[in-house]
Structures are given as C-alpha cells and as structure tokens.
User: Fold this.
Amino acid sequence: MDDVLMHEHDVVVIGAGGAGLRAAIEASAAGVSVAMICKSMLGKAHTVMAEGGAAAALANKDHRDSWQTHFRDTMKGGKYLGDWRMAQIHAQQSPDRIRELEQWGAVFDRTPKGLTSQRNFGGHTYPRLAHIGDATGLELIRTLQQKGVHMGMDVFMEFTVRRLFKTDGRISGCFAYDRNDGTLHVFKAKTVVLATGGITRCWEVCSGSWEYTGEGHAIAYWAGAEMGDMEFVQFHPTGMIWPPSVKGILVTEGVRGEGGVLRNSEGDRFMFDYVPEMYADEFADTEEEALAWVDEVISGQLATKRRPPELLTRDVVAKAINSERGAGRASEHGGAYLDISWRDEDEVKKKLPGMYHQFKELAAVDITEQPMEVGPTAHYVMGGVKVDPYTQETSVPGLFAAGEVATGLHGANRLGGNSLSDLIVFGRIAGEQAAEASKQMGYFAGIDQVEIDEVVAETLAPLDREGGENPAKVVSDLREMMQDKAGIIRTRNLLLESLSDLDELEKRANITSPGGTRTYNPGWHQALELAAMIDVSRMCALAALRREESRGAHTRDDFPDTDHSHWGKVNSVISMGDDGSMEIAYSSYPEIPEELKSLLDTEDLHEEGS
Amino acid sequence: MDEVTFRVFRGEPDADGEPFGQMVDYTVALDEGMVVLDVIHRIQAEQAPDLSCRWNCKAGKCGSCSAEVNGKPKLMCMTRMEDVLEEAPDGEPVLVKPMQAFPLTKDLVTDSSWAYDTDRRITPISGPEEFDWEFRQEEADRLQEFRSCIECMLCVNTCHVLREHQMFDEFAGPRFFVRLAGLEMHPLDTESRIPEIKDDFGIGYCNITKCCTEVCPAGINITDNAIIPLKERVVTEFYDPLVMLARKLRSD
Assistant:
C-alpha cells in the first residue's frame, strides 16, 4: 500500500474561502493548533469572485436601518423557510464582523462623512451592502488571508479532501491528496470545520469556479450528516450569455442597485409586470417613481419613493427573465437587456469597474454606452449540512460547518449580500466552537486502517484504468443533464428522468480513465470529483421531486402555487440509510418567539384561523 | 469551422529542478469569443486530460491562470483568441508556456509558494482597538488601487531582478511593494516598515523600468504609485540630513 503522510491538528478547517479563513483565525486565536486545507492556492477560493457586497445593518447610509429590518428582509427573502435563529444571529452580528474586517485592513468605499458606505441590493429595504466597487469578495478574502498568515496556522494548499473519518461515532479526521504531487495525507483532528462552499458546477450554465463540485456536501453526507433544503439552488438572474465561452459569468446585482434597468426585445421594462403580491407595497409601479427613487439614492438623500422592481429578490427576477424568453421576447442571444448606460460614465466606471472591464474585454461591449445581455446562471445552493444555529455543529459530533456548505440562514432563496456576511458571522462561531470542543477532547482518536486503505485504493483507481472515457465528457454530460432536467423550472417527469440519468452517469463515472500520472493531473482530479457531483445532484433532484409546490428558488411547473399550510412549514432532510441508499424526511424549526414574529409582515404568514 | 493550433509546453522538472520537456502541438476547433483558457480546456477535454493548468474564476478576478502566451505574460482567461490571432503571424501556432520566473511543477503550473512565504514576512497592520474611525474616500482611493491586486504574479514573473537574477531571497518584488505601500499609506495603521523595505525587502534593487506596471492585468500603477513613493520614504528616513541628525540626537 502506498505511503500515507500523517498529520495531527486540534482543529482541521476544510476550505479557505471567507468562512474557512474566518473559522481558522478564530480557532487559532483560541490557542489550538489549526490546519487550513485549501482546494486552490490561498486567496484564490471562490469567495474572491463575490462582487456586490456584504450585508450588515450598519445604518451608515440610512439611519432607519436596524438588525430587526435585516432580520425581517432575510426571512421574507427566504420565503419563511429559513431558520429564524440563524437569521437573528446573522443580522445582529454582521455589523461588528464588517467593522472587524476594517480593523484588519479592509478598505471599503466611504460615505461623505468617512464611514463605510453601503449600497442597495435586491430584497434589502435600505442600502445595506458594505462594498469596494464591485470586487468585495477580493477585499474580504485578501483581508482574512493577510490576517490568517500571521495566526500560526499550518496551510495546506491545493489539497482536496475526499473522506471524513469517524471513530466511535465522532469525527476523528479526514483524508486528502495533494494535487501538486499526488501524495496522500491523513489528518487526525479533534474537531473538523467544513467550509467548502457550494455545488453549482453541477449545472451547465453557472457562475462557479472549478472548485464548486460539491465535495464538502458529499463527504458530510457520506459521514452520516443530515443535509437540509437541497432542492433550493439559486439561479442568479444576471449572468453573461454572449459570447458562448463566457456564458454564466456573473454580472453583479450591484448594476441594478446602481440603477440598471431590465428590458426585453420590445424595449419594455418588464419587471413591473412581475411584482409578487407579498412585495406589492414596496416597489414602484411606474417608471417615473422608479427613476425618482434612483435620483434620491444617487444624490445621497434618504429614499422616500418605492424601489425599482429590478431590485426584487433573485428568484423573482430570474423567473421573470425566463418567462420573457418563453413568451418570445428574449434579447438577441436568449436573455434580457440590462442597461446602466443612462448613468454618468465616470460614475459607472467608479462603482462598477469590474463589470466595465469584464464586458469590454470578454464581450467587446462598452457598458457606459450599450446595454448588457444577461440571463440566469446557477449561483448558490441554499441547502447544505444542517447545523446547530448557536454552535454550527452538524449532526455528526465534532463536525462543524459554516458558509455555503451549511444550511439554515437563507431558506428558499438567499438575498444578495447575505452570503459574505454569512461567511464571517458563522465562520467565526464555527471556529470558536470547534476550538472549544477540541479542548474538551484530551486525545486524538485512532483512525481505522481499513478505512484508510479503502479510500487510498479508491483514490488511485482511476489511474490504473484503461480504455474508459475522458472524465471531462461525463462531467459535461452531467452538467447538461442537470441544466435541462433540474434547472430553474422543474416537473415531476423531468426530475424522475434526472434521477435515472444520474444512475447511468454513475456507471460511466466509475470506469473513466484519465491517463497520466499523479503529478498535477486535472483529468485524474475530475475523475475523482464525479462521485461527489453525482451524489449532490441526486440530493437536489430527490428533494425537488418531493417538494410539490413552488417557493423561492424551487419552481415546479406542475405545482405552480406556494403551499403555506404544509410545505411552508417543513424543511427536507436527506441522510444516508443503513444500506447506503439516499433517504429523505422532513423536519421543522422551533416555533418563532412572539417578539421576533412581530417583526415579520403579518399578511405573509398565512396562519390557520387568522 | 475555424481551427487553431496551440503549441504548449509539456514537461516536469528534471533531477536538478530544471524544466525538462517539449512543446506539443494540439489543433482544436475555435468558436466565437473564445479566450486562451477556453482553448486549453478544450485540449484537456478532447486530447490531453492530464495537461496541467491552474484556473479558478475564469473572469479575471482570482489571478490563477497566469502564463506566457506568444511570449507575453497574460491571464489566459482574459486573453481573447481574436486578439492573439490578430497579433500573431498567419498560420503559426500559438505558443503557451508557464511563467518562467518560478520553478516548474508541471506543464503550465509553477510553484509560487515563495509569494506566501514573503507575505508572512510582512509586518501586519496595527489598527485601532475601538470601532470608531473615519476616513475619506480620497484616502481610500489610493489604497483601493493597491488592494485591487489579484496576486496573479505576472509582475513578479516579468521583473528582471527576479526573472533573470532570481533574487527571491533579497527582493520582495513588485507584488509585495504594492502590499507594503498599501500598509504604509493606510490611514488606520501605526507601524513603520521602512527599515525592512530598505534592508529585508531590497527596494533598492528596483531600477524603475516599469516592466511590472505594463503587465499588470488589474491596471495598478505599480512603479509610480507604490514603488517610487516607498523609495522616497526610504530616502527620507535614512538619507535626509535632518532626519539623520534627529536620529543621532535621539540615540545619544
């Protein structure tokens, strides 16, 4: 058997984006030894791609904002399927997490008074997103990276984790390989923090990087963790759609926050036709009112007018663009036109420098003069590992999770800007709690050699296979299938087909042959990622099949209505059965206390007897 | 259908750590709007699954896919084939090589771990304890230029002090002078790093040829806005007669 290199750390953090880095910083500060395992190089994780901002009720731009309003907006945006406890913690703690980033060197855009500036975003009542142009993710990850490298943690770059180990029912470590040289590693740990991000690489049109293959979700599931809300995958309404090679690349919601308007091929500003009942009071019903709101906001006044309908939540805008296409009113390449060119050229370049360059360089479009063409792109998974809201511990003792890989905060639809704040609020809690729990463990539990041998053999197997397909082909077929059958609009038949297609894809995945050696071999890496991609796709399709209603990011053509009496009260829970099969059940969060409930919009709650 | 031929470096270090390999030709179909990285991905998907190449965001934000395309340091994800073909001689293959300043790992992947070791040597920010600061956008502007660095290392790859003379131990290179300038000019920071900038990070080796500025995909004016102001601060701190006198008096 191959040599396996052994490591020991009190806390192993898997994932080096915003949540992982924040957790590792907190755990290191608590005085325990920390391993930070990065799938990419440090500072390149998916967080770097975040654009618009981090939501926190600092109330710097509008004094009327408060954690209570942020809590209300998050619950409403999540269509009341989120965990109110996480929504409360998040709304209360995010302002301090943002200030802390500035203390550590982040330089957000400023208000005229010299405070952290905030921008408007979909579903947020007030300007709430701390930002730096449209490169907020870069600022966040660089700040945490530069803080982190001085905390004494051991950093393992370009390592991919393939298995979690348990000993006597409790987490005891993980197995990883080094992509650079193909060496194999076992990390013994007293606690593990999972901060591996998302799964959107399973769809053909997505805004995610190669990292987003869902290994974090999969290894948690394989280790017996409960997975919640996996049917909810957010399609961001505005991805690039032309030329073909850039399809899916994100166009920040900040464009709409800065006054960008959506039009169809007939020049109509169609979002006025798609305002849902629950938001009817809050959005403008004429172009004049929408424009007046933008004028107020640009000139730094407090908004008195209602907001433009382009700032509705992402689920609503994505479906609207999809419906316009269905009605034959799509833009030239099958999306919608997003236009910010009516604003001052210098302002556009200052507020949206990344978008200006992205379109200029990749699509030869000058956004200060021409509209952009945009369409929906798979962007974020609301579902993930179920966690205790106060500790972030999963149903596997000693395993913690934070960020996109965890579930609870966002319910059926995430608000823009709530992800970056999610990372730093719950990353910190996970790091603190994992460190605390590791101190309670006096020793490193032994890891069963049989399990190590098994995962080693499975990891090396693709290199010994010959005559099979290129794994890239199976990956692209999987992504195309999920796009067609488990995408924005779903039906029972399509979802059933997707589940049987996944069985076929699994058979093909098991016999791919990438060729080559263990040294930096992307074909081998892709062959290994397939098992995770297939299982997370299955979780999504299964949960989507069972939820017979439409809510937030989950739209069933055969069940178009939102069902408050049953589906509005339950969250799906997927776990692995004793025989290895995928099982699904339902659970509910505890009753929301009266003082928090009073913050919500009573007419949205649809209570029986009321 | 249009086709393009790429001539790509394939190889690994030999026993002495020197790159050992060959240039291999791959011909694939070319679609509208493709960038260099799309062609590399198509080669992987159709002909060479084990062709090593780093990438993440494919949108110019992460700085992972740095390489030398027809001899020019580029982010492969932001380099349109249209532009490459316009500049290249007709019918010639497009040459793609890894960054030459760093040790080779395999094919287009290099070992840039030096960057992370250098980062650790920089004294971190020492900010205020209380959450009560204010600073203006004019102050932020200067820093935000530096903070837009995506750590692609193309500047380091181009700098002759590092590329030709391999002075990685003595010289922090353009990327880290940008970082140091960002700290030195930060309104909340109370540290001084000027002695290290002179002695440990070797700013004197830079003779301001501006090669780094020319290749920066983030458009940072590295030489004029970061390196020259730091050089001036070193001069003021160490060679200004009044400051030298004051230091002498203090130490007496």
User: Anything to note?
Assistant: The CA atoms of residues 84 and 111 of chain B lie 26 Å apart.
